[in-house]
Specification:
CATH architecture: Alpha-Beta Barrel
Helix content: 25-40%
Mean pLDDT: 90
Number of helices: 7
Number of strands: 10
Distance between the termini: 10 Å
Length: 232
């Protein structure tokens, strides 16, 4: 079942500063989780509208603008109506909307297994501790490396994951250095993903094996199944 939402665009300031108990949503849909430690599980995705970053490899630019305002309780009801245990709050950059924290708490209170996909450019300290935070550290090839908030790293636990999307051998070497310097694998699961059409999956797999790097190689299962079809 797929539910796709759309509406007129809003200014970024409206997204971040709205005082109402609601969020601007691009889409809510049921699919299989394509990555991270819950890959393969039926999952409801709640995609929030808006993002302050512009990564070179972004595959969800359609979530930068538009969307529909939803009351937070209505979002929770829609998620529960899908009848599955896993829910992923994503974007865009979901934490750009401050009320996202309220949504995460209410989803946890509803007994769901909740994950948050975030760029790592915004503070994750206030996220409900029951949430699995998947923090995407931006590589040089992303064009947004300067936005990384390294203060987030000491906050992460074994419940969380740290993700790198790699665009080149240079990106790989940078990410490898970050893992070693910050001992990231001792803190959380570390995920290495190849950027589509820039690094071949086989290349990346060979590099990881050659270096005996303590990271988890992953490909995006949903793209293998459905390519770049929105809402899948």
């Amino acid at each position: 079942m797929t539910t796709t939402l759309s509406a007129a665009a809003a200014l970024p300031s409206e997204i971040v500063q709205s005082p109402l108990p609601r969020l601007k949503i691009t889409e809510i849909f049921l699919s299989l989780q394509g990555e991270a430690d819950t890959a393969g599980w039926p999952t409801v995705f709640v995609r929030l509208t808006g993002c302050p970053l512009r990564c070179t490899y972004c595959d969800t630019a359609y979530a930068f603008h538009g969307g529909t305002w939803w009351d937070i309780d209505a979002i929770v009801d829609e998620v529960l109506a899908q009848g599955v245990h896993h829910v992923c709050v994503t974007g865009g950059e979901p934490l750009a909307q401050k009320r996202c924290l309220v949504l995460l708490e209410k989803l946890c209170d509803a007994g769901l297994d909740v994950s948050l996909e975030t760029s790592g450019a915004l503070d994750v300290s206030a996220v409900d501790p029951r949430v699995s935070r998947v923090v995407d550290l931006k590589t040089p090839g992303s064009g947004e490396m300067a936005r990384n908030r390294l203060e987030n790293l000491p906050l992460l636990t074994k419940r969380d994951q740290i993700k790198f999307v790699l665009c080149s051998r240079e990106d790989y070497e940078w990410a490898r250095g970050m893992v070693r310097e910050h001992r990231l694998n001792e803190r959380s699961m570390v995920l290495f993903s190849p950027s589509k059409s820039e690094v071949s999956p086989r290349e990346l797999a060979d590099w990881i094996v050659a270096d005996r790097l303590p990271v988890r190689f992953q490909m995006q299962l949903h793209k293998l199944l459905w390519n770049d079809e929105p809402g899948r």
